[in-house]
Amino acid sequence: MMQVIQAQNVTLAYLKENFSLHKSEEEQFFTEWFDYIPEISELEKQYLDRVKTNYLNVLENAPLLEEAVKMVVLSPLLDLAGFYRHHFYIATEESVEISEEIIIDNEENIEQTKEIIKGKIDVLVLQDKLWLLIIESKRSSFSLAKAIPQALTYMLANPQPDHPVYCLVMNGEDFQFMKLIKQAQPMYALSDRFTLYRREDELYKVLNTLKNLGQVLS
User: Fold this and answer.
1) Which residue has better confidence, 195 or 120?
2) Do residues 70 and 58 touch, judged by C-beta distance below 8 A?
3) Residue 18 near residue 152 (C-beta atoms within 8 A)
4) pTM of the predicted protein model
């Protein structure tokens, strides 16, 4: 079992200081999320439109927890991208608790109250080169920024340092890809962030990128 430092101690500054990790500003460093993207069919687009509708409908009743996010959103994406087929395997790694502190104004007592909201990062690994981090929130969706340093920690510990490692961080409604290369100085880059709250169904772009990464890793 991989040992990961406490989530609350993981920041980008911490990784830079302790692992010499730097963000690449070169556009050509991470082209896999926008270049040579496979087309998806009209049938796949219809399926993804239904996934988006299902997610938004379920979300109306209660904040989605991690298992529901995996069932409603992630599982269809993995199926359409071909990650349940030969050459790929899925392994579930340990979960890591995350939290954020908010300040509540109490008008009656004219004072501020701090409240801790806790969540969890659940990790799935495909082929040791592609990591999926799903954020569960007990109350509202965490920003992906809460999980990115933790994701990079997992990626730095990958067992194949000579190959690029990729990651998708998602909370059900937002998605962002990452790439890390461990060389003399580890470097990483981020894709644009995709969301289900735009008029266009950005699950198309998420699936396109997953398919492309599947071809790269095959």
Assistant:
1) 195
2) no
3) no
4) 0.81
